[in-house]
Specification:
Beta-Lactamase, binds adenosine-5'-diphosphate, binds magnesium ion, 13 helices, rod-shaped
Amino acid sequence: MAATARELREGLDTVSRALLRSASREGSKVDFLREVSTTILRFTGSTSLDLWIENRRVPYHWQAVSRPRRSYRIASLASGPDAGLWRRPRGDSPRSVTFLEHMLPLVGDGRLGASASRTPEGSLWLDEQAMVPFEIHGPDQGVLRLRRGGSEAFTARDVASCESLAHVLGVTIASRRAHAALTERVKELTCMYGIAQVAARPSLTLDETLQEIVELLPAAWQYPDIATACITLDEHAFASPGFRGGPRSLSADITVNGTHRGRVEVVYADRKAGDEDRLFDDAPFLDEEQHLIEGVAREVTAIIGRKHAEEESERLQQQIRHADRLATIGELAAGVAHELNEPLGNILGFAQLAGRAPDLGAETRRDLDKIVSASLYAREIIKKLMFFSRQTPAQKNDIDVNKVVDDVMSLLQPRCEKGAVSVVVELAPSPPLVRGDAAQLQQVLVNLVVNAVQAMPAGGTLHVRTTHDSEMVRVTLEDTGVGIPPENLGRVFMPFFTTKDVGEGTGLGLAVVHGIVALHGGSVRVESEVGRGTRFAIDLPSTSTTEEDA
Ligand code: ADP
Ligand code: MG
């Protein structure tokens, strides 16, 4: 370093610019440290360089050796043999003369304490080594140590220029941190923006949305090449390619309406052997990344909520359309029933009257009997249509639904036995009473039980349950029968809809169920899976609610 003051200043200028340029270069922290080390080693003619750097995540020690063989090393000061040696007293400035004294156990060797020379800036030097403290940003500090080979001792002027260099190095490191933070921030925002875009596509199902989101996640992390992500929701997993669980992971829970439903997880795969970025092992994730993953979990939660709401509103709309259709058919049926009732009454009346004539031949009498029984059959159908269209007045009594269930089940026990159907009845203790017509409610249950038995031609189990809250009583009938294909689910309550052979079903059973339940202010719901079974649930308002309504 035998140069004029001017040469020295120009040299310092060039090196400073080179250092500062390194701050905004793409690449890992290790790449950055390699670059600045090479610049400093070359300029100062040193054989080795050590940096102890304070850092919010993991303080670390970096070593670069240029001679005899080029080598680099990075180690955490938060773990490993030097852990805890970085213990600068709070508030101690690197410029204070005592700063390095505190650091000597870490950065120095035994000879230094007593015999080293000092500068007003707090640096120490002795023979061929110099130690320079410097400031990075805010409270963060660093120490630069340079060594020269052989007998080339540092001079006061050398140390002064090392101090200038260390100062620029501090600024460079702070600038690189700001730059890296900005890059991370851009990645985060890009990720959140991507998620928002995926979420805004209404054509995607929830599953498709989650799959697209999970594939956006790895790129937002500091080491995208080894990051993989997984979103679990209700035991379903959506993963980015190559996802495998591992210890270096970050996660956030997905909680919808207070219920834990799953989580978002990002995992770093193992680094390839030979990578020096050991630091990574101690604290692979940034604080910002914890925030990011929580943000992602919140976004996913919102998407789930929205999708559920969409599905629910679609379901409600369908229900309304269905109810509308049933109401229209009901009116039609009521009209038809009404129109047919009178002529049918006449047919029946006159046929019976004609049958009483004394001088009828046997043939004619048989014909008249046929007219009578056909008319009776027709009247039954009309009666059912009237039930469906709620034209039949109901009696209003206080009814214990459990008793209705008991009565019907004992009535139909033989029929169930014959069909090899085992019946399990579970009645809620003392459900509230409902206001209505016991005979009609029995009819409802009879129709449902008969359907269930018919749906289990090879036998099975029929579960009948009553449950309740303060406002309603629910009767659930669950069979293990053939089930109802989805395309029929919306039609089973239509009058005359049947899948049964002539003589086995008229398709009026569920129409009647619907009519009676509606007349009682209740609702009936069906769920079914082909090959597994069907569940009907009937909700009837309890007297407390019906009276309030009245
Ligand atoms: P029906 O029994 O006379 O056919 P319903 O109105 O009682 O008429 O039922 C209509 C249709 O709904 C049936 O034909 C059947 O296809 C279907 N269904 C009703 N209940 C069940 C059930 N428990 N399991 C399977 N299918 C059922
Ligand atoms: Mg039926």
